[in-house]
Amino acid sequence: MGFAIIILAGAFLLMLPISSATGESLPFIDAFFTATSATCVTGLVVRDTGTYFSTFGQGVIMVLIQIGGLGFMTMATLFSLVFKRKISLKDRLLLQEAMNQNTMEGIVRLIRKVLLYSVVIESCSALIFAIRLAFDMPLGRALYFGIFHAVSFFNNAGFDLFGDYRSLTSYVADPVMNLVSMFLIVSGGLGFIVLSDLIELRRRRKMSLHSKVVLSMTGSLIVIGALVIFIFEFSNSKTLEPLSWSGKIWGSLFQSVTPRTAGANSLDIGALRQASQFFIIILMFIGASPSSTGGGIKTTTFTILVGAVFSMIRGRSDLVLFRYRLAEERIFKAVTITMLSLFLVIFVAMLLSTTEDASFLSILFEATSAFGTVGLTMGLTGKLTVMGKVIISLTMFAGRLGPLTLAYALGPKKEKELYRHPEGKMIIG
Q1: 217, 299 in Cβ contact below 8 A?
Q2: DSSP 8-state secondary structure symbol assigned to residue 259
Q3: The whole model's pTM is what?
Q4: Phi and psi dihedrals of 321, rounded to 5?
Q5: Gap between the Cα atoms of 107 and 71, Å rounded
Q6: 325: helix, strand or coil
Q7: Structural contact between residues 270 and 378, judged by C-beta atoms closer than 8 angstroms
Q8: SS3 of residue 320 by DSSP
Q9: pLDDT tens track for 365-412
Q10: Residue pLDDT, tens place only, 404-423
């Protein structure tokens, strides 16, 4: 309900004439789509952010991104802390669920860390962006661009102000823009629990199982993704071939990082080979990590699925990660999230296939991008029909909340089972 109210309020503000550069009123469906994309930190746009919207409109989008990235409950807690209002037990329980925590212990302290880390990371990155962009534009404009893109990239939103849907294509071989952008995307996608573990590692000298899994899987996906894109696109005259060796490396690396649900791109996604596009769909479906600003099924879910497969192949009854055995409940939850997410993406792709006139790969790409709150597109977003915009908006909303959250919210109330059925046997495989 909180996210829905924020989206509607944002849509109303974006419809105001003051929000557009020309002073014209934005149609409701486009305003609703943009507000949903910003609040759900996706980055899919039907109107170019840098040219269509005024400074006021861009400011509204930036605020929606910040609220959506940190989470509705985190922002509500911020106001409670500012006005010195007591955090009730009910609020703590909601925060526990919102942050994917197993206990309420230290939950308010974690929220304080979330807010502090966000301010520090965004501020430092905005300053570096501004210094670099000051070589290409006036200082005031560079500072404004730095703040907007720091907020957008850290919250994995993918909105940009460079105009004409260019994103970072003009800076494909720029080390500063690439490094800072990737740092923001990865740090926002790791999750605040992992950031807290990394910052306090020197004092604690120990890292949680969650952080180990997230860091190892995130690093593996980035390296594998960069290698795959580099190999597939090396001889593509529309992407990597015209670039220098350093440009090829930066381009491959950035396109591997951005499916972490960031949505920015330094290569033309529509010009990539189909093999690369399909591989990016897989990366977008996996997404970022729990308690982060990103979407997808999450890296931990994917790790559990892969681990369960290897455990079964090796004939082991337990799934062991970093010398810790995982409970069956975690495996069932991972399978449930994956299957619900897969069904959602397939269902949305089928709907879009009937409403949109486009290739199936671009439709599947769009559906996965919306579900994973990524924001990458092969060029379909700007051509969506009214029904297509509604479908993608609802998919972004479902992707930001998570299919399991929606299932719990809309499903029947859980009741204690009073009996168990006898065990049956059936043939598998």
Answers
A1: yes
A2: G
A3: 0.90
A4: -125, 120
A5: 14
A6: strand
A7: yes
A8: strand
A9: 999 999 999 999 998 998 999 999 999 999 999 888 877 666 666 666
A10: 666 666 666 666 677 778 88
